[in-house]
Each structure stands twice: as structure tokens, then as C-alpha cells.
User: Fold these one by one.
Assistant:
Number 1:
Amino acid sequence: MTGPWPLRLTLLAAVGGLAVFPWVGDPFYVELVIHLMILGIFAMSLDLLMGYTGLVSFGHAAFFGISGYLLALMTPESGGLSIWLALPVCLAGTAVAALVVGWFSVRTSGIYFIMITLAFAQMAFFFFVEHQDFGGTDGLFVADKPFVGFGGWQLLDLRDEHSFYFFTLGLLVVTYLLLAMILRAPFGQVIRGIRANEARTRALGYPTQRYKLISFVIAGTFAGLAGFLEAAHTEYVSPSHLGWHESGLVLMYVILGGMGTLYGPVLGAFVMGLLHDQFQDLTEHFNLVMGFFVIAVVLFLPDGVAGLVARLGRARGGGPADPPR
Amino acid sequence: MSEPILNTLDLSRHFGALRAVDAVTLEFAPGRVHAIIGPNGAGKTTLINLLSGDLKPSSGSIRFKGQDITGAPPYVVSRLGVGRSYQKTNIFPAFTCFENCWLGAQSRERTSMRFLRPARRYRSVRERTERALALCGLTERAHVVSSAISHGEQRQLEIGMMLATEPELLLLDEPLAGMGAEEAARVIGLLRELAADHTLILIEHDMDAVFAVADRLTVMVNGRVLETGDPQDIRASPAVQEAYLGSGEGGG
């Protein structure tokens, strides 16, 4: 079965809207939307774990930050680092980190999984805080944006704000499509089963821990993609990128946006980010307003913002609003 | 008698001081329906959990087709060809009946570590799924979310999911629990049909059903095997009558 058409059209329209935004939007907001799209990739990666595998990680920012540090460390002062080297190294590095963390973490579940992922992320946090070679609490600057091209020929100038915008938008769409593909494939069926009833999934013949570990590594790698983009965009990475505060924020995007929908967490990142931006200007007590917003969503929209969109957009009494199975 | 498909040797499982299963030595002949009966708390479900790998034995061993499977995890046991259904309905409530059976059917592929092609394009899996749905009588309910079907239908689905894994040996833990008379008759018919080319190990409280399908019976009491034999012998056994059949407890 394919996904519900109203949803697909809405998503296409949203991508279309994002594609024209740089020409009509204020440069400040173009900059902000880049950041939000990066957070959207980050949130989608966590949704694979939370919304589909049933693993609530409270240390997902570790992979976001590690990737940024890798980029900062490998970028030479003179710049000109090829993205064909930088991106694979950052992704492979986070994949290995996720494999190590996941190896231990997937043996636990529930509250213990939350605690062990938090513990690993805090270890990474303090590692970078305490090592002056890695900038300590000040963090590191990324000397230059990666070079996208072949040899001397440049394909895309990431120093240009619009180019970076479309680069990020492209990767946001690619991330969504790749994750949707994985979820539709046999692997996706198994992790959904694990979320719904792990014991029965095991009894049906699946070594569930292996599937959870692979899911954890995939999620970590996509978080690494987001971290790579964030560090390249701001040309800066600091321990706060992998702190528990960052892990908590991305958890909120996923929960408020709507777990198990992929597009919901992106929506969550956008709604939270834009509200934050608006209320920050209005009042110094914006955190209070954000708090009320969070409570309101949890109380009135148990399926998150995506649940509301699905409810409004549902032409007839269709199925749930998750992507095609 | 031919080589047993499954046998246990001094199989025990203790929970603290409780000997839930106590030195059980049993042989299950291929192609037969072997029912295990006994009062509540006799250790029947614990025995099934040991056979399926859901529980690890405290001591003793289990062999399936000559291979030692003692302590093997459930997914290994399942992939060797042992299917089980649960006494307490154990399904994926948010999935449709089709999706429930799909997961069983897909597990017979060499691996599910596949990330590219949509799962629904795997024809062999689809065929197994549809066969399982037809066998358990849920073809017409295939696309209904399984939390929305009746209790009896969920019991049928429970069996369907197991059948989707195409097992050789079926461990059925009270397949008729909580079923109406009509549904029960249906499932008894299905068990008879399955008995033609499977080995069945059946726990059941409904004695009429047991005597209707089983060709061998084991009576368990307090974790131990009291007696094993053909149905008419068991029915006639004074020890069994006293311990179980006559007590009215399991008359169901």
C-alpha cells in the first residue's frame, strides 16, 4: 500500500515552500530555517529510534556533536577540505561511536536505556570539556566550509548562504526518503515489531538485539549528518552540542512533533524553533511561554503537531498518518 | 516407534524453591498430536516456555531432531522449525491481521537485514502470509487492526502468526482459551487439519477437545510427569483419575 495522497501532497507543498523561501524570506530567517532544517534531520534520526524501534535515547546529541568535532578537527587552517573526504569521515566516525554506545545500550530497555545513553553522552561531553586540544569549554572553530566539487572545479559554494540552504534542504529530503525506504523494507517491518512487542518478535524468529543495534547505528549516523551540517553552517562546535540539554531538545521535537511519522519531528523542530524565535523578542520570560506550549501540546495533541495536521488533512476516515509501509 | 522429533531429558526449571518443572523426560513422536494435561500450576506452560526457548532450563536438556537446543534463544528455536502460540494473546495490537502474520512469514527469509526493496514486494513472504491467514480463517479480516477484532479472532490470529513461520513442530498453549463453542469447533478442525503434516504439542483444558485430537497424552502434576500413554489408557488410569480427571478441576 502507498501512503495517503493528501499527506504526500502536503509534504511536497512544504518542500516547495521551503524551496522558494530564500528568494522571499528575510536573510535572518533564511539563516534560521537552515538551522531548523538541520534540527529536522537530527529529529528524524531520533524518530527512527523512538517512534519506530521504541528506544528512547537521552544521549542522541552525542552523535550530533561528535560529527561536528570531527569536521572541526580535520579541517585545515587553509581550508579547502573536500566534502567527499569530510562527510564520509564524519559519518563513519559517528557510526562507529553509535556502534560502541549501542552495543552496550541495546542490552537494556526502558528507563535503563534512557540512563545508559545519557551516561555515554555525558562521558563524551566531559571528554571534550576537559581536553584543551579540543578547545575545552570554548569549543572549536571550523576553519572553512567543506569544498563541494571535483579537483579545481566547484559544484556548489557552501560559503554562499543560498547554496548552503539548498544543500541542507536537499539532504533533509534525502534523509526523509532514505528513512522512509528503510522503514518500508523488511528491516523496517522488524523494528516496528520490536516496538510493538519485542518478546513476540523474538519468538517469531528475529534476533531483536541485532536489529535494535543496527537501528541505533543508522539513527546515530543520521544524527552525525545533522551535526556535520550544523558545524559546517555555524563554523563552530562546542561541548554544548553534545550535552544533555541538546539531547532533551531533540526529544521534545520528536514528542511534540509526533513520534513515528518522520515528518512530525521536522514539524516539531520548526514549530519549537519559530516559537522560540518569536517569544524571545516579545518577552524575557519566553521559556515560560514555551513551557505552556509544551503542556498544551501534550494535553490536547497526544499525537503531536503531526497528529493535528493529519486530523485536519484527512479527507475521509483513513488510516493513521504514518508514512507508507 | 520412529526417532522422536523432540525429546527432553531430566528437564527442570526452578523458581526459587518452587520446582515448576521437575525432571521431565519426554519423547514426542513426529507427526503425532501429543497433549499435555494437568491441573493449574502443574508446570505445563513453563514446560512449553522451556521448549520454545522463552525460558532457560535450570538443568536437563532438550533435543530437537537430534540437535541439542538446550538454552537456545527463542529466535534460534523458531528458525529451526518450532512454532509456538501463547495462552495469553500475544499479538501486535496496532498492526492489522495481515501485518501480524507478515512478520511471522518474513522471518523465514534468510535475513530481514534488508533496507532497499519495499517489504511488500517479497512475493514468497506475501504468499506465506496469505496462506497463514487462510488457514486460521482470517482472510476476510486481513486488513482490520488486530486490536479491533474479537477475542476469538485474536486467538485465531495467534495461531496464524505461528503458522506463518511454517513450523514443523507446533507448541500450542491453550489455543481454545476463552473461545466460544463455534470458534472452538473451528480451531479443533484446524488442529486436525494441521495434524496431517505437523507435529503438535498441545496444552488444553478442554477435555473434549483433547480427546478429539490427541493421540498421545501426558499428565503433569506439580511439575512432574505423572503418566504418559494413549488416550484410552490415560482415561482408564486410576492414578490419573484420582490426581486430575476425577477431581473435576480440569473438566472444562
Number 2:
Amino acid sequence: MPQVFSPPVLRPCGDRAVLMELGDAIDPAVNRLVGRALEALDQHRPDWLVEAVGAYRSLMVIYDPLRADYQQVSRHLAALELAQAAGRREDGGVVEIPVCYGGEFGPDLEMVARHNRLSARQVVELHSAVAYHVYMMGFTPGFPYLGGLDPRLHTPRLESPRTTVAAGSVGIANDQTGIYPVASPGGWRIIGRTPRKLFDPRRDDPFLLRAGRRLHFVPISQDEYRRLVAEG
Amino acid sequence: MDVLRVIAPGPLSTVQDLGRYGWQRFGVPVSGALDDFSHRVANRLVGNPDGAATLEMTLAGAKLEALAPVSLAVAGADMPLSLNQRPVEAWQCLRLEPGDVLTVGTARAGVRAYLALAGGIEVPRVMGSRSTNLGGGFGGLAGRSLRRGDVLAAGAPAGGRRQRRLPPEHRPAWERRVNLRALPGPQDDYFDQGLTVFFASEFTVTPDTDRVGCRLQGPEVPLARGRSAGIISEPLAPGGVQVPADGQPIILLGEQTVGGYAKIATVLSVDLPRVAQLRPGDRVAFRRVDLDEAHRLYRRYHQRLQEMSRLMAVGDEV
């Protein structure tokens, strides 16, 4: 069982940030506490708050040292209300991500299947069978770190990373699965591609996903992929 | 208004401001001018607010032709300047007329120089900032570094073409051996003997250094017994010093939001401009300070910038 830190553990992270740890493990319950701390900070923004950044089990709170010192910031963080409102559902439903698996969009699908002694079709079925928890984003803008990959799909990274992985590529690396929102170098095994834009800096809401939400992969054909791309 | 045409861009020249805050939880790094001090001084030399966008030039500068009358200043790394092939000084406001050509040469000391235009470099704000995010391909000038033929536009100048110049004795000297002040943590408990090695040794900057991080080479900084270098990935603060399993520290800069290596210490904000100017082969030592001293130094840094502004106001019309 994961341990929840109550009260949270606070540590200085340089001269303008405090690291707030809410538990000791990668776990949806601990991660939801991170989400609640961010929400509480967003709702009543103290004048010293520059930005708060969440991750798996911790958040980093950046402050303006000309407006507050570490003790002031720590007191504020220690007093944040993290208790869950009774009966409240927080994940906002499941986001559906259509994926065209295999072929030119998923060059490593066959390899993932061979590695796990499965057929390509079984890989697709297992990968699209569950809802994944979005723990955090990082690596590139909008890249979701997802929890919940079926152990039967765990596959090591490529021995040498590709210089370019296309935007929308869906991959597996060890016990993780994720989606590349922008074209970037990468070493994950690519099993498919989504036509949805996870990140568009010109949109009012640039991100399709956010931490704390859940997502589901939905297999689509190449024709559907092209149709969805054409629809934008 | 279009004011400069790029004849040669230099190896890596990007538009930067004070950074893009508010989106790190989505994986968007702050970016921004790595040498905050030189960026602010360049802006102040042409009468801009500190948040105006400048051009960050790396190792060598750009060659630019004026398309309209423009006031500009270059500050930061010691790159020789010439205006129509006649040497001119950096750290002062220069006036260019249409057809004038400014050449910013190869850095003799330091790495990054900042070119500020009166009125600021005018590019669209993307997600609240004009900084270039090279990894995501947005912000700045079309999300990329400068190319030959690009045209830079300037915003409306704040007014008053004063002849500003920072006296030489107040300009930073980019020394080849620097002491960086640092606070232990956030994972100082991953190291015991390693902390002693870290704060007592000298490290060398490797050529494998970019806007993401400054990689160092030196005596191995060992982890405490029973600890591994990996941690559950967490948000990163600029200046954080990661120590991967090989024991060779990396000072993180402004292009990564989360990381999974233990950080032995975090360099003070006021010393990050020094890190931005480190060249391969430069020597680095870390000096331990506490949070009270760090915050005193932070306030002094901002007071010093105010003093700089007073020192540089020396005349009226350019």
C-alpha cells in the first residue's frame, strides 16, 4: 500500500521553490492529492505564487522571494485543505483517444507482439481495453505519463532512440504507455498513431488532456484516421 | 515595424523574454533568456521594460541590416561588434539608420549575448510569452532559431532616446573559473559522503552543454549506501543539480519540466546567469549557502539592477 504523507513533506528546492511531497509511491490516490493541492492553490492565489507544477506524488510551488520567504510559503502549503469533498467525482470522465494501430503508424506493433508472445491483434485489444490514469505531463508539451499498462504488454525501449517520432505516435516503454504530442526524438516502441491533436499552442485550451483525467484508446481504421485528420 | 533583416543568423539565435510561466504542469518549460542579468541590462540600455523580448545569440552573433532607424544594444558574452565594419562597443545604446550593418562576432568570453531593440522584438505572444520553445516548435520567431532572410520587427519604443551606456567597471567579467553558490537539496538525503565531494571539488564544463543543461565532469559524486540515482519523477527548478548513476553532475537550465534523477543541490537564481555563460573547459566549484543568505543575495541582485539603471542614464539624445 502506498503511504500518504500527512502532513505533507516540504523541502526547499532552491531559493524560489518549495517541493511538497504527498506520498511515497506512484498511485492514483496520492496523485489525486496532488491535483487537489493544485486546485486549492489555483482558487486562492497568494500574491507570492508564481506557478505550481504537479507530478506523480509531489508538486513544486514557485514563489517570489521578494514577496514571501520559505516559512510563509510553507505555512500556506501546510494549511491547504486536501480533504476530498464527499461523493465528489473528480476525474471528469474518460477522454477517448482514437488510435490507428500498426502499419506505417505503428512500426513496432509486431515487435511488441513477438516480445510478449501475443498476436498483433491481442496487443491492440489489451492496449485499448482499460482506462489509463493521467499522472502528469512532461518530457515535451502535453506528453502524458499514463498508469495502468497491462503487464502482458511491457516491452523495453528501443536500444537506440529514433531521431524523429511523429506527433500523435502512441508508444510503450517498459511498464509505461504514452502519446507523443509533438514530433521529437524518442526511444519508445511505437504501436500506433492518433489523429487527435494533444497540443496546439494556438488553441484557447492548448491541451487535450490534463493530469488527473483518465483516457481510453479506441482502435480505428486507416480510413477513419484519414477522415479525422481531414476534419482537423 | 520591420527594423532589421538577417544577413547571417549565427549558430543559435532565438527570441527570448523572461519566460513562459503557468504551463509547466502541462510539460511546457519556462524557456526564456538563460542569462537573466544580461537580458535585463540590454533591455534597460534601450529604455525597454525587462520583460521585452531580446535576441539570445549563442557562441557567435548575427549579422543584421537596418531597414528603418532603430536603437539597439548588445549585452552579455563578449562578442565583438562592428557597425559598417567599424568596431563599436557593446553595453551601450547604438543608433542604426537604414542600410547600416551591425555584425556581432564570435564570443571571446562567455557564451550568450542579448540584442535588445528599442520597443522590444515584436513577435506574437504564445501562451503568455514571446520566448522560443525549440522542443515544441512554438513561440519566438515561428518556434525556431533565426535564419538568413528573416526580418525582425520592433514594438513601439517607450520614448526618450537617451544615450545609455553601462560603465565598463560594472560589466561582468566572464572568468574561466567560477564559484557557484548552491543550496543543498531537494534530495541531499540521497548523498552523505557525496555532499562533501560535491562542495569540496572542482568540476569541468563538458562540450555536451545546451539550453537544457550544463554537464560537468569531475570526481565521482557518490550516492549514499543503498540509494539509487533514480527517483519518482518530479518537477524541476532551474539550477537543480542532477547526479545520475555515473556521479557526474548536470546543472539544469530552462527547457525541462520534470526529471527522475536525485538532485544534490540547487544553484542560486542569482548565479544562473554565470552558468549560462560557462564554456566547455571552464572550471566550476560549488559553495554551500543557507536559505537566508540566498534570499539576501536575491534581494541584492534586484537592488543592483536598479543601481545599474541609474548608472547607465548618461545623456539625452542619441
